[in-house]
Amino acid sequence: MKGSRLKVRFCTNESQKSRAELVGQLRRLGFDISEGEVTAPAPAACQILKERGLRPYLLIHDGVRSEFDQIDTSNPNCVVIADAGESFSYQNMNNAFQVLMELENPVLISLGKGRYYKETSGLMLDVGPYMKALEYACGIKAEVVGKPSPEFFKSALQTIGVEAHQLLSM
């Protein structure tokens, strides 16, 4: 595909690794890919945060934290939640809950809504159940940034200047 005149964009729902780490893994497997060719939920969320002047409480995996290095997290006025793995503790969930409940117009941004995924050790809860718990407790609806959100795919198309009707999905 890269040898053709087609514009290529890789979309992933990966929310435990930074794009740099993911691209490194793919390169070791023989893929010719750069960070700029990857659309992932964390950078898409960062764009939303910057555009809207939001300062998040981050309930995310340490592996993706570097994607948020340029984001102001002081005095949070929203919550960003992702597959946080071991960071999904009662204390961290309650902190996110408290941030949301203190806001007049609470904003919950989720980097996905999967129910579970499979690891070598077995099935693991994904971000979806935790997102739903915060939605229920706070009486709000999360904004999902990542697959299957249409906005996620639109952001990928915008970066390469392609309209949806010109898309070839593989």
UniProtKB/TrEMBL annotation:
Keywords: Cytoplasm, Hydrolase, Magnesium, Metal-binding, Nucleus. Its EC number is 3.6.1.1. It catalyses: diphosphate + H2O = 2 phosphate + H(+). Its cofactor is Mg(2+). GO terms for molecular function: inorganic diphosphate phosphatase activity; metal ion binding; phosphatase activity. The keyword GTP-binding does not apply. Transmembrane segments: none annotated. It is found in: Cytoplasm; Nucleus. One of its GO terms (cellular component) is nucleus. Signal peptide: none annotated. It comes from the Eukaryota. It is an enzyme of class 3 (hydrolase). Pfam families: Hydrolase_6. Belongs to the HAD-like hydrolase superfamily. Phosphatase that hydrolyzes imidodiphosphate, 3-phosphohistidine and 6-phospholysine. Has broad substrate specificity and can also hydrolyze inorganic diphosphate, but with lower efficiency. This is Phospholysine phosphohistidine inorganic pyrophosphate phosphatase. It comes from Colobus angolensis palliatus (Peters' Angolan colobus).
